[in-house]
Amino acid sequence: MTSILPRRHRGTRLLCLLLLVSPSLLLLSCGGGASQLSVSVRALSGSSIKGGKSPSYAVDVVNQGPGEVSGVGVRVDLPADFRYQSTNSIEIDRGVRTEATDPEVRSPAPQWALWTLSAPATTADGSVHRSVVRITFTALAAGKPGDYNVVAHAGSETGSSDVSSTPLAVHLSPASSLSSVVVAIQNSAHPGDTVTYRVTVLNDGTGPASGVNVLLSLASPLAFSRTASLQGNFSRTGSGDPTAGSLLVYYSGFTIPARGDGGPGRLAIVFDARVATGASSGRYTLTGQLTDSDGEVVAIDNAAPITVLGPTPPPSPSTAAGGAGGSPPPATPGY
Q: Which of the chain's termini has less CB crowding within 10 Å, N or C?
């Protein structure tokens, strides 16, 4: 097993082991009688999670005594494709952190160090108060659906060996992973023209995306005209389609399958919108979002730009009066 302690602290444990031949030297040089750590890990977000979610876990490291223990480090082995994201909190009861070593983001085996934990103390009512370090953290769940374990380890400079927790069973459920691309087939249009849009929704996850809804908001010079086609390997319940003349383009009730041997699940929507006859020239985009029954939201921001080429302005009165040359004809002199 990979050592939990930072490299520059590993020699201290060897020194303490050599001093075990003399209990008195152990007491003077290693901070008291040999102490035994215990470590446990529990899920704060349930034991069944979906890929792409961020479950949280709590690790408790306890000094069982009889003496003080120093140089305490912690490591958690996550399932193969899980990655550490952030530390939510670190609580210390009857101990002190002597060095702040924290995990790197996206680590598969996050490590924290170092603490000194006081020896257990007996209270007035006869109960034993033990020193504890509690770490809560968040990870990103990913990988193939199945059953996995999360295992925590603890070690110290003064202990003879690392200790491990009872494996925490984790079930990774199939999960969807949606993305979208929205494009305008034409780059430009005139007032009164028809613009064609294509919306492609992909599911690159390990499970189907159900209850998928597509909502788009057109810029005010454009209005929905008609649905040209729906393509892909999706299925559909119901037929929530947009209303002609509306600025809102809303399709609902799709189920898009998970990625298979042929690639991701796919839904492609092609629809037309008409540019208003009085539209001003300018650049126009659309916004919107994808949603599904699991609460996933994929934002669509400033997509599918088109340029509306407004009508040519009428000539000014002075230009019209002056003919092609733009100047009035010279006056004929009188005799």
A: C
